[in-house]
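During the second half of the funding period, the structural biology subgroup turned its attention to how the target accommodates small molecules. The most pressing case was 2-acetamido-2-deoxy-beta-D-glucopyranose, which had performed well in the primary screen but for which no bound structure existed. We therefore specified the complex as follows and requested a full 3D prediction, including the ligand pose.
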Amino acid sequence: MASFSFNLISIRWLLLLPLLHAVAIDALASRQLLCHDDESSALLQFKESFHSNLSACIDSSAYPPKTASWKLEGADKDCCSWDGVECDNDTGHVNGLDLSSSCLYGSMVSNSSLLRLVQLQRLNLADNDFNFSQIPSEFSRLSRLTYLNLSNSYFSGNIPSMFSDLSKLTSLDLSNNHKLHLRSLKGLVQNLTNLEDLHLDHVQIFSPVPEILSNLSGLTTLYLIDNGFYGEFPVGIFKLPKLKDLRVNYNKDLIGSLPEFYSSSPLKIIGLWESGFSGELPASIGNLDSLNQLWIGNSNFSGSIPPSIDFRPYIQQATSITQNYTTIHLGLFGRKQHAPRRNSIIDL
Ligand SMILES: *[C@@H]1O[C@H](CO)[C@@H](O)[C@H](O)[C@H]1NC(C)=O
Ligand SMILES: *[C@@H]1O[C@H](CO)[C@@H](O)[C@H](O)[C@H]1NC(C)=O
Ligand SMILES: *[C@@H]1O[C@H](CO)[C@@H](O)[C@H](O)[C@H]1NC(C)=O
Ligand SMILES: *[C@@H]1O[C@H](CO)[C@@H](O)[C@H](O)[C@H]1NC(C)=O
Ligand SMILES: *[C@@H]1O[C@H](CO)[C@@H](O)[C@H](O)[C@H]1NC(C)=O
Ligand SMILES: *[C@@H]1O[C@H](CO)[C@@H](O)[C@H](O)[C@H]1NC(C)=O
Ligand SMILES: *[C@@H]1O[C@H](CO)[C@@H](O)[C@H](O)[C@H]1NC(C)=O
């Protein structure tokens, strides 16, 4: 009798085993999704350290902000499911945070709980209002960062020199922070050899453009608009093998001239508007098969337009264009590829 019921039980157990196994795997899988407690509390503390009501929004359409979904109760307590938060699928560590346009208003402190998210690889805090606080040099502890975007976010003071420790960065955007200063662009980039996108528009730099930028062979976009640059622009930058988009507009004291171009160049956009660039447009500019925007107005170019610029008939939009054969102020050449080739007369 006893052995009979024993057998029955073990058979039941045997039947249950696959089910139990499945439950156990489920539990493991969902536990893996749950983010680490220290990271969710760091995120909540970060959220709490800012105002994020409607009046804190730069752009009221961003309201309610992403952080409104951040709660420790209910079905959404897993921080990996919070808006703007990305986790590593294997480890559950927070490795990405996109709080761009999230109505964050307040000062960034040097012991911000954000700095506890040491696994972060991507951080976007663009379009918030950090109340002209400084970028803490402690940011350099986030040594895994490959993407850092602090554009248009009301930071001021010096960009910490410790930023050069973030040697894994492929993308750095500090643009549109008018009160931010950079002491040494060379010091910043000499260690950031993986950079693909460097955007520093409207940051106060006031130095020559360092030669070392022409060594950043992975650069695809370089925005150095209105930085107060002076001196000679390193011509090697035009020859960077992957550079598609180069903008140095609004640097009146930056001098330079255009080099010979080769057809292998991927340059699509060249912005030299209101710079101190001078000389003639080289005929080889016609070799730039990908070029669809060339902004050279309000600078000091001279000579005539080379016939090789066969996209002249496709001028889409032209601002302050005058041509008297010695001085050219060209606006934007647009849509070389898409416009029909026609022999039109351009009213320059
Ligand atoms: C909303 O934020 C502003 C600052 O932007 C603050 O002065 C105000 O007290 C906040 N209001 C509420 C209800 O939290
Ligand atoms: C992680 O998981 C999410 C959701 O299942 C998926 O969308 C994403 O592609 C995964 N990421 C990686 C790197 O596997
Ligand atoms: C903004 O900065 C000012 C000056 O440092 C400070 O007095 C004020 O408390 C800050 N406001 C917030 C919301 O952090
Ligand atoms: C940062 O330090 C200040 C003063 O030392 C303290 O009051 C505050 O709680 C700290 N903040 C964090 C996020 O650790
Ligand atoms: C930084 O973020 C802003 C706002 O989200 C975006 O427009 C910009 O393209 C980003 N910059 C880079 C380099 O990705
Ligand atoms: C370059 O980055 C490494 C860390 O990746 C750091 O140890 C080193 O001090 C940095 N060098 C400079 C010149 O900033
Ligand atoms: C750029 O790279 C070249 C060749 O690798 C090297 O000789 C030169 O010193 C580098 N320039 C700078 C400014 O580091």
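Two results from this model are relevant to the next phase. Residues 51, 53, 55-56, 105 surround 2-acetamido-2-deoxy-beta-D-glucopyranose (ligand 1) (CB under 6 Å). Residues 322 and 341 are 23 Å apart (CA to CA).
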